[in-house]
Amino acid sequence: MMVLEKKRLCILTLSVSLLVMGSSVFAGTSWSSEESKSLPGWNGSAYSSTQTKADIGQAGLQMNATEGYEIDVRTEGTSGNSNGVNGSWVRDVKGGNTYNLSAPQSKGDNLRLHFSSNLTTTKSTNIVYKWRSN
């Protein structure tokens, strides 16, 4: 009976570990689950989940909704050699479109998307999207 309890504890610990690791960072060749963020007005910022760059190349963004507002977006490196390395801003991003984003970060490093509202946007905007780091 003691051996069975140890096996259950081991399986439970392993399962929880995989869930925790799997929810925080994943390789960027697959599209993320749909994400929704509130983007504050007046040049406010919001950030996506983090992904690990699996290879060199551009990132992808499927912008599903921006409540009719145009926003700006770029990639930002958050770890390793790419910490602080940012892609170029893509301006006038709107819902219903797919975009290729510059992603100069290194393979194996983590990155995220940085969303920014326009200076003249006075309200918070709900943005809905999927993305992949490459």
What this model shows, in words?
- By secondary structure, the protein is of the alpha+beta class.
- The chain has one helix spanning 2-24, and strands at residues 25-27, 35-39, 45-47, 50-52, 59-65, 71-77, 90-93, 97-101, 110-117, 125-132.
- The strands form 2 sheets. Strands 1, 3, 4, 6, 7 and 9 form a 6-stranded mixed β-sheet that branches. Strands 2-10-5-8 form a 4-stranded antiparallel β-sheet, with no helix packed on it.
> What is the number of E strands?
10
Shape field = globular
Mean pLDDT: 85
Strand fraction: 35-45%
Nearest-angstrom radius of gyration?
18 Å
Structural class: alpha+beta
Low-confidence stretches: 9-24
Number of contiguous helices: 1
Portion in helices: 10-25%
Q: Note the run of SSEs as H and E.
A: HEEEEEEEEEE
Largest sheet: 6 strands, mixed
N-to-C CA distance: 49 Å
Write a concise synopsis of the structure shown:
This protein is of the alpha+beta class and 134 residues long. Helix content is 17%, strand content 40%. The protein contains one helix and ten strands; from the N terminus they run αββββββββββ.
What would the keywords be for this entry?
134 residues, 6-stranded mixed beta sheet, 4-stranded antiparallel beta sheet, globular
